[in-house]
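Entry 14: structure prediction run for ROK family protein. Input pasted below.
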Amino acid sequence: MSPTERPPSRLTAAVAPSLLREMNQRLLLDLLFSSGPATRPQLARDAGLSQPTVFAALSGLEKAGLVRPAGRPEVSSGRPAVLYEADPSAGSVVGVDIGRNWLHLVLADLAGDEVARLDVRNTARTSRSLVDQVSVAVQQLTARAGLTAEAVTHTVVGSPGVLDPHRGRVRYAGNLPGWQRAGLAEALADKLGMSLTIDNDANLAALGEYTFGAARKARQFAYLHIGTGVGLGLVIDGELYRGFNGSAGEVGYLPILGEPPSGEPQWPQRGMLEMALAADAVVRYATEAGMADNLTAEDVFLAAGNGDPAARQAVVTEARVLARLVTGICAFFDPELVVVGGGVGQNLAQLEHPMREEMARFTPMRPQMAAGDLGADAVVRGAIATGIHIAREIVFTSQLAGTAAGGDEAG
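Run finished. Output tokens:
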């Protein structure tokens, strides 16, 4: 043996089989979640593993409570093999959508299937009261599902703005009073007492439409959320693009409509484009066109659909602003598809024609567009899509570690 050669490592020989077993178990569990129940021969074929390897891996997963028998397939002759399926009840996920007016919550199992739902008015006026209200709502939701809040594997909270992980604060969330204070993320995690992710609502809505909705067949698309605020989620090759600081998609700050109002402070809470495109802008355009006060954006679109000329003028004005934004998105990103959602964006049927007329003045690009399939559920369904991947990993690691520890003690 030369001086540069090392003797065989006994540690490597001891660790490698357990690592390989874990990799095989993880692969099979992913297959069962993504493709549904399967027999051992089917799993061996799909995973490229031997049947004895699949048998051993399934045995460990079943002992850990992650996989269970699911009967036998119907066959015309012979004794059918046993079907196995991932056990979706091995963990649970809570998705929370924090909006200015409403909190939408869904509890789902590890397959992403809804178990319980709760919608409550957002009455909070400070960050502390909002943290308290979210905590109470999660407790009410889990009680509906017959669980305790502590039994939830992972929670994903969607809100306007971008989480700064270093200071635990949410930036660019001008529509939620006090939500940008430092330490908020820690306060929410402490109050909920569970594994937690906080993410941008437009990003989560993009993932929701990609996983469950209008963008399921698209690999590169833009999700444009227009409601109380304005946000953009970008998906490239199936992955969210967040940018260097996580602020990609904060298009509400685009300075594309002239000069900011005089007297505005430096770094305003709301950007110029958001003030010209969000729901309150639709109401402003309607009142300027002659409609009565005390309207909502929903009222304006309903009146426009019924032929009210002032409401239709407001919709055209909104569509022209939207055209500028979509033109910019296409020039920079060239998406396969633009999905539009949110309380305003879901009215794409009324907005699209005047928007395309306006776009024709600026660009030869003709993007494919679609209204979101998920409506008001887009953010919370994206939260569930995000949460189940994290929760599956948590459950896989903890359950198998507990099984291994039990085996070691028994030995």
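Notes: The first strand starts at residue 38 and ends at 39. Will compare against the previous run tomorrow.
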